Amino acid sequence: MTQLPLRAQLASALGRTAATLSRATGRGDGSVIGGRIGLALEPDLLSQLARDRRLALVSATNGKTTTTRLITSALQELGDVATNAFGANMPAGHVSALASAKDAPYGVLEVDEKYLPAVIDATGAGVIALMNLSRDQMDRAGEIWLLAQKWRRALAGKNTHVIANADDPLVAWGASTAARVTWVAAGQPWKEDSWCCPECGGPLDRKGVDYTPPGGHVAGAAPLAMVPRPVEDDWACRECSFRRPQPSWFLDDDAVIDPRGQRWVLDLQLPGRANRANAAIALATAEAFGLPVQAALPRLREVRSVAGRYTTVERDGRRARLLLAKNPAGWLEAFDVLDRSLPVILSVNAQGPDGRDTSWLWDVDYRVLRGRPVFVTGERMLDLALRLDVANVPFQLVASFEQALAAQPPGKVDVIANYTAFQQIRAEFDRAV
Amino acid sequence: MQSDSILRLVWIYPDLLSTYGDQGNVLILEQRAQRRGIPVQTIHVRSADPVPESGDIYLIGGGEDRPQILAAERLRRDGGLNRAVARGATLLAVCAGYQIMGSTFGGEEGQPVQGIGLLDIASGRGAGRAVGELAGEADPALGIPMLTGFENHMGVTRLGPGVRPLARTAVGTGNGDGTEGCYAGKTVGTYLHGPALARNPGLADLLLTWAVGAQLPPIDDSWYDRLRQERLTAVLPQQA
Ligand SMILES: [Zn+2]
């Protein structure tokens, strides 16, 4: 690793000290505080820390943290990997991650969608993985079409290899200015943000998929949300030439088909369709680093839980599996993971990181929960209660997660929570278990 | 209702303007009609398709700048919504959809974009974004309780003499002059998400009453009431 200039070395060392202090004083995992102090001292620090490493950036609305973890796990086959494993996905977190693994020849950084252009510029990363874009925390996240447009501008004219989901029209549009793109057919269950062409605004036609309104609801009829087989998931604009690029990698049910046509059964420990899609992106990204599927896949299979997602916590014989869902597309993916035979606890907050507007609850089709015991809690339980009442989903309101858990018979239960509700449950169980 | 005994709800352009849970307003009208034994048919109109003129209640929601401009262009070209409202249909227009109903609104760079002129209002872009809870006393002539909801917009809307304010704001920004939303005839415009009808079942019933042409029997509102109570208490602590 090249020596950092003295000022940068100092900034980086101070950053590490602050991170240690933050951990010691219990004010977080330290990953952001260290980076903030470092950045204040040396704005070019991120560029300098990124120099002479092979970097992958990972961005999307959903699945960033998990995909970052999967790619990191794969690349460890090649050598040491610097990564922001705690989801501190803004430049401060990137500085912190790279500074704490100075000698790692590889880096995999989860990047907040809004910061991606700045981080591309600062790091000159050689590989960028882009999975999906959908509505998310509208009161602060802003507009996803604008976001995709900024991606286009940031990628244009750069010598970057992008790995992108061809099944998400907005991602395809956002990635298509890159010099080189490897397209992955990773699927797109949530389509409500891409019925119109990002290029011209015309209607997008989808092969094998009729238009379904958000939530799939039509009065009088009750078709459940369609989840088409990804390989059939073609789309094209009716009015201009923008259409789905030809993928070279395919997610095919429980397997990935590589560019040579070989089918690899994934057999992950992480559950659900969304994680198989993340794995497809991770395998294509690993190959961009020269790591073949047969070497990468066993590494992906080792990943069991990511920052508490999918972990099971236990109390008094009740074993609760924790699923994080931060927005409507995330809830759709979480429903896909649920065990149909189990009761489910739902917890919803509306603090800053969750988005303070709970309107998004009405974009989620909760009718899939009919027929199993449903428990509702969280700081905005009444918003969710009315939503379920209107969807004719019977439920029980419970004052706290602890009470909801205590109300279960001994055995398994699934939990879906949004961001701060999820963190509250983790904090509670970190102390208790 | 138009002709037969089915209440026709028409949801306009969910492919462009449904970014803030706007489907909720449709679902709530369906529920509140069905719980009174009124059969409902809901029609979703994609932006490439014509707006049918035979609906009873039309709904249009919120969205980003670019889809808002596309929606305004297509509604103007289509003309179906204007003809339906002229015929006496009821309309609920929310946020971006509300601004489209006026003479002009602010585009991506603040440039004026032509609306469809169903409400005597003109909107522009404000200095900052209005984001947060909103509460306000509804116009007394409407006979509905205090409005509650969540706003998230950059719009400033001037009301002309042809409309009345929907509410006087107690908390929040609304139109930007101490009022929130407006109405004229059977057309209601509002900045409120939440969605608006989830937070304000009285407003939902007002729209249904206009469409059905008769008073509606009360239904069990306990979940609505608890949510309203909680939200109003949170934003108006002195009132609790
Ligand atoms: Zn097009």
UniProtKB/TrEMBL annotation, chain A:
Amino-acid positions noted as binding Zn(2+) in the UniProt annotation, renumbered to this chain: 197, 200, 237, 240
Active-site annotation: 357
Residue ranges constituting the Mur ligase central domain according to the UniProt record: 61-173
UniProt GO molecular function: acid-amino acid ligase activity; ATP binding; carbon-nitrogen ligase activity on lipid II; zinc ion binding
Enzyme Commission number, as recorded: 6.3.5.13
TM annotation in the entry: none
BP term (GO), one: regulation of cell shape
Domain of life: Bacteria
Keywords of this entry: ATP-binding, Cell shape, Cell wall biogenesis/degradation, Ligase, Metal-binding, Nucleotide-binding, Peptidoglycan synthesis, Zinc
Lipid II isoglutaminyl synthase (glutamine-hydrolyzing) subunit MurT C-terminal domain location: 324-422
Pfam families on file: Mur_ligase_M, MurT_C
Pathway: Cell wall biogenesis; peptidoglycan biosynthesis
Reaction catalysed by this enzyme: beta-D-GlcNAc-(1->4)-Mur2Ac(oyl-L-Ala-gamma-D-O-P-Glu-L-Lys-D-Ala-D-Ala)-di-trans,octa-cis-undecaprenyl diphosphate + NH4(+) = beta-D-GlcNAc-(1->4)-Mur2Ac(oyl-L-Ala-D-isoglutaminyl-L-Lys-D-Ala-D-Ala)-di-trans,octa-cis-undecaprenyl diphosphate + phosphate + H(+); beta-D-GlcNAc-(1->4)-Mur2Ac(oyl-L-Ala-gamma-D-Glu-L-Lys-D-Ala-D-Ala)-di-trans,octa-cis-undecaprenyl diphosphate + L-glutamine + ATP + H2O = beta-D-GlcNAc-(1->4)-Mur2Ac(oyl-L-Ala-D-isoglutaminyl-L-Lys-D-Ala-D-Ala)-di-trans,octa-cis-undecaprenyl diphosphate + L-glutamate + ADP + phosphate + H(+); beta-D-GlcNAc-(1->4)-Mur2Ac(oyl-L-Ala-gamma-D-Glu-L-Lys-D-Ala-D-Ala)-di-trans,octa-cis-undecaprenyl diphosphate + ATP = beta-D-GlcNAc-(1->4)-Mur2Ac(oyl-L-Ala-gamma-D-O-P-Glu-L-Lys-D-Ala-D-Ala)-di-trans,octa-cis-undecaprenyl diphosphate + ADP
InterPro entries linked to this entry: Lipid_II_synth_MurT, Mur-like_cat_sf, Mur_ligase_cen, MurT_C
Assembly: Forms a heterodimer with GatD.
Family note: Belongs to the MurCDEF family. MurT subfamily.
Function: The lipid II isoglutaminyl synthase complex catalyzes the formation of alpha-D-isoglutamine in the cell wall lipid II stem peptide. The MurT subunit catalyzes the ATP-dependent amidation of D-glutamate residue of lipid II, converting it to an isoglutamine residue.
Record's protein name: Lipid II isoglutaminyl synthase (glutamine-hydrolyzing) subunit MurT
Native organism: Streptosporangium sandarakinum
GN (gene name): murT
From TrEMBL, chain B:
Pathway(s): Cell wall biogenesis; peptidoglycan biosynthesis
Lineage: Bacteria, Bacillati, Actinomycetota, Actinomycetes, Streptosporangiales
Functional description taken from the UniProt entry: The lipid II isoglutaminyl synthase complex catalyzes the formation of alpha-D-isoglutamine in the cell wall lipid II stem peptide. The GatD subunit catalyzes the hydrolysis of glutamine to glutamate and ammonia. The resulting ammonia molecule is channeled to the active site of MurT.
Gene Ontology biological process terms, A to Z: cell wall organization; cobalamin biosynthetic process; peptidoglycan biosynthetic process; regulation of cell shape
Name of this protein: Lipid II isoglutaminyl synthase (glutamine-hydrolyzing) subunit GatD
Organism: Streptosporangium sandarakinum
Positions bound to substrate: 129
Domain CobB/CobQ-like glutamine amidotransferase: 9-200
Complexes and interactors: Forms a heterodimer with MurT.
Catalytic activity entry: L-glutamine + H2O = L-glutamate + NH4(+); beta-D-GlcNAc-(1->4)-Mur2Ac(oyl-L-Ala-gamma-D-Glu-L-Lys-D-Ala-D-Ala)-di-trans,octa-cis-undecaprenyl diphosphate + L-glutamine + ATP + H2O = beta-D-GlcNAc-(1->4)-Mur2Ac(oyl-L-Ala-D-isoglutaminyl-L-Lys-D-Ala-D-Ala)-di-trans,octa-cis-undecaprenyl diphosphate + L-glutamate + ADP + phosphate + H(+)
Domain of life: Bacteria
Family statement: Belongs to the CobB/CobQ family. GatD subfamily.
